[in-house]
Design a protein that fits this description.
The protein is 44% helix and 16% strand. The chain has a 4-stranded mixed β-sheet with strand order 1-4-5-13, with helices on both faces. Strands 6-9-11-7 form a 4-stranded antiparallel β-sheet. A 3-stranded antiparallel β-sheet has the order 10-8-12. It comes from Exiguobacterium oxidotolerans.
Length: 433
């Protein structure tokens, strides 16, 4: 294999043979293929795309570049979920205990947040003492015991993807569906689950702003899953405004707990039940989605999922007493209200702007080395479609840094108020199976 010949083939719209894709990824991982050649290949893929076969080959080459987690000692059908991320996305904190409450094992690896999109691991560390680095034996035993565990990603999981993503980030080739799809699916496949449910976001706060792009990505990822014998479903959900009313870390945990206690936070509840129901069907617990949805909704109301969540926090060393009272984790030095400057209806909330406001307050990272303030938060008191009058409090901002005025400026850009009430967007746009 000559890397320059592969680059030329892809540059001219040709297909790369399976063996050459595997050799290319191996060479890049071990340093034989230099960054400048892989950058050229990434740009060629960005412009020319890849066939379904090529994307599946690239995915599996990245899977095989590092560790593959063996979950065979965990009893039952293992079902994983992945979200493409968004502002206020705390769905995993609801879905995992809900699915575990019916006996389906959830052995999940999650990441940290970078930028304004918070990671599940960051949120869970709002519980003092919570351990995200369980040994493989402890991880397996916990899932067999209480049916769920969530840990950070292992150091040698898909190293090729880590190297390639870092390169794409600095060469303007991140936004390529073949590269995004193979990146996401390589990690999910390496994590060892039997089946995968993908929560693909679309809207102003999503990576895929348009429904068409979200559908293309979802379709590609489902195709990859099926090509390697993983049952895979993608649900395209709305991220045109933040999910729920809380953005931050500890306060998102608080809101997830409230949903597990039976509170009807409409968008969170509907999307969580939808994702959980598809997981339950893939886990072969229910024959149909409708039966799963009805029973899981009951489990939200009766506290069964909340009980699993408490056991999960305690099992991983976290202070489970906070599940009953998160107030200690929410204390900050500073607080400021954002108020409406005119009357009307909230017609739009640009989720990205709210996410940046939360990051300014300390809830997110501008760089990987930044330290998260778990208590920094934005609470939305008005969502799209709500009526506001001049002076109404629209949102409350909290921080331990004196950056509230900067964050308020972002909130001013985020909220749009009009004279007419906007039409409601669907929470679930499509299911790709």
């Amino acid at each position: 294999m000559r890397m320059v010949d592969l680059i030329a083939t892809k540059r001219d719209g040709g297909e790369l043979p399976t063996a050459d894709i595997k050799a290319m990824v191996e060479g890049f991982t071990n340093g034989d293929v230099p960054d400048y050649q892989m950058s050229a290949m990434s740009m060629a893929i960005f412009y020319q795309g890849m066939s379904d076969r090529e994307i599946a080959d690239l995915t599996m080459a990245m899977v095989e570049s590092g560790d593959v987690i063996d979950l065979s000692r965990i009893h039952g059908k293992k079902v994983d979920k992945h979200s493409t991320g968004g502002v206020g996305d705390k769905i995993s904190l609801i879905v995992a205990p809900l699915v575990a409450s019916i006996g389906i094992p959830v052995a999940k690896m999650s990441g940290r947040g970078l930028g304004h999109t918070g990671g599940t691991i960051d949120k869970l560390e709002a519980f003092p003492g919570f351990d995200v680095e369980l040994s493989e034996e402890a991880f397996v035993n916990q899932v067999n015991d209480i049916k769920m565990a969530i840990i950070g990603q292992t150091g040698n999981l898909t190293p090729a993807d880590k190297k390639l993503y870092a390169l794409r980030d600095v060469t303007a080739t991140v936004n390529s569906i073949p590269l995004i799809a193979s990146s996401i699916m390589s990690k999910k496949i390496a994590a060892g689950a039997d089946s995968i449910v993908l929560d693909v976001k679309t809207g102003s706060g999503a990576f895929m702003k348009s429904f068409e792009d979200a559908k293309a990505l979802a379709t590609e990822m489902v195709s990859i899953g099926k090509s390697v014998n993983r049952k895979t479903i993608a649900v395209i959900t709305d991220m045109d405004q933040p999910l729920g009313n809380e953005i931050g870390n500890a306060n998102e945990v608080k809101e997830a707990i409230e949903v597990l206690q039976g509170k009807d936070v409409r968008d969170l509840k509907v999307i969580a039940l939808t994702i959980a129901s598809h997981m339950a069907v893939l886990g072969e617990f229910y024959p149909t989605f409708d039966e799963a949805y009805a029973d899981l909704e009951t489990r939200l109301a009766n506290g069964a999922a909340l009980d699993v969540f408490k056991k999960f926090i305690a099992a991983q060393g976290g202070d489970a007493s906070l599940v009953d009272d998160m107030s200690k984790a929410l204390e900050t030095k500073y607080q400021k209200d954002f108020v409406a400057s005119k009357a009307g209806y909230v017609s739009e909330i640009i989720a990205d702007e709210v996410g940046v406001a939360a990051m300014i307050l300390g809830a997110g990272r501008a760089t990987k080395t930044d330290v998260i303030d778990h208590a920094a938060s934005v609470t939305l008191l008005k969502k799209v479609g709500d009526r506001v009058e001049v002076g109404d409090v629209i949102a409350t901002l909290r921080s331990n840094k004196e950056t509230l005025d900067q964050a308020i400026e972002k909130m001013d850009h985020a909220y749009h108020i009009s004279e007419t009430k906007p039409e409601a967007r669907p929470l679930v746009h499509a299911v790709i199976d």
